[in-house]
Design brief:
By secondary structure, this protein is of the alpha/beta class. The chain contains eight helices and nine strands. It has helices at about 15-30, 40-55, 70-80, 105-135, 155-175, 195-200, 205-210, 220-230; strands at about 10, 30-35, 60, 85-90, 140, 180-185, 240, 245-250, 250-255. The chain has a seven-stranded parallel sheet with strand order 3-2-1-4-5-6-7, with helices on both faces. A two-stranded antiparallel ribbon has the order 8-9. Helix 1 links the parallel strand 1 (about 10) and strand 2. The longest helix is centred in the middle third of the chain and has 29 residues, at about 105-135. The chain is globular. Bound molecules: NADPH dihydro-nicotinamide-adenine-dinucleotide phosphate and 2-hydroxyethylsulfonic acid (8X3). NADPH dihydro-nicotinamide-adenine-dinucleotide phosphate binds next to helix 1, helix 4 and helix 6.
């Protein structure tokens, strides 16, 4: 088993859901955390909570992963300051809307592609050379079952997560011969702010996604992330897919029927 104690883990999208739960699990395992996202107050609260609870260092930085210049500048100064990163958790991501392509909103498309694909690339491009120069590191990309199965209205989000799956495979090939591992963790429905964001703040529509079955919790995905990170150095979990027991495919749910009076 690989110990996480004393390691430095970058978590993108640490202000909510899976990223926040992963930061908590990693800190509990003794890892120092560099948490980034756009919402500063959320990051500050996470920093307060983790440093009060665990004997680790937690650095935070407001960063929009879509902003290539900001990403490059921040990581250049982080590494120039003598810091290093052992773990890169590429988690920041979102779905926007569920319209068919013929009715789709190009701003939603841009946001998904710019965050889920280009943002992941910008961060990886900034961090990987430093891992390569140390011949050490582990990248975990949060994909989705949406990168395995297309579903109605998923179109551009599906395409972005198929891209994340391809990038995970590609990075593993590019890093052949190094000690750097790349693992894609692909969850099914997990109750976070994901659907609230997807439905542009419509709480009722978001709640309906998780009604009638027990979805994954962010902590379940965080456990899977820790599992791949803690695998012995000679083991690379290339792809881990996890779903709620009541979910067996992108649109296959065993949902309880609503009570009728
Ligand atoms: P949440 O909405 O709860 O969290 C998303 C996180 O991404 C937030 O911390 C948000 O922070 C951050 N984020 C979004 N855009 C940016 C940006 N441009 N720059 C930096 N950070 C950003 O959703 P989840 O926790 O569910 O989502 C995390 C990942 O898991 C995503 O990649 C998602 O696609 C994936 N996923 C989710 C599933 C689910 O059912 N929930 C299932 C499968 C995969 P902020 O807004 O502060 O910037
Ligand atoms: C999030 C899960 O099925 O809503 O990636 O696309 S799903």
């Amino acid at each position: 088993m690989t110990s996480l104690k004393g390691k430095w883990a970058l978590v993108t999208g640490a202000s909510s859901g899976i990223g926040m739960a992963a930061a908590q699990r990693l800190a509990a395992a003794g890892a120092n955390i560099l948490a980034v996202a756009r919402r500063q107050e959320r990051l500050e609260e996470l920093q307060r909570q983790l440093t009060a609870q665990y004997d680790v260092t937690v650095d935070i930085h407001v960063l929009d992963v879509r902003d290539r210049t900001a990403v490059e500048t921040f990581f250049a100064s982080w590494f120039a300051g003598g810091h290093h990163l052992d773990i890169l958790l590429n988690n920041a991501g979102l779905a926007m809307g569920k319209a068919p392509v013929q009715e789709g909103d190009w701003q939603d498309w841009d946001e998904m592609i710019d965050t889920n694909v280009k943002g992941l690339l910008y961060v990886s491009r900034s961090v990987l050379p430093h891992m390569v120069s140390r011949n050490s590191g582990h990248v975990v990309n949060i994909g989705s079952i949406a990168g395995h199965w297309v579903y109605p209205g998923g179109n551009v989000y599906n395409a972005s997560k198929f891209a994340v799956r391809a990038l995970g495979e590609g990075m593993n090939m590019d890093l052949l011969g190094t000690n750097i591992r790349v693992s894609n963790v692909d969850p099914g429905a997990c109750e976070t702010e994901f659907s609230l964001v997807r439905f542009h703040g419509d709480q009722e529509a978001a709640d309906a996604v998780y009604k009638g079955f027990e979805p994954l919790r962010p902590e379940d995905v965080a456990d899977a992330i820790c599992y791949v990170l803690q695998a012995p150095p000679h083991v690379n979990v290339a792809n881990l897919v996890l779903m709620a027991t009541a979910q067996r495919g992108a649109t296959l749910f065993a949902k309880e029927k609503p009570q009728t009076s």
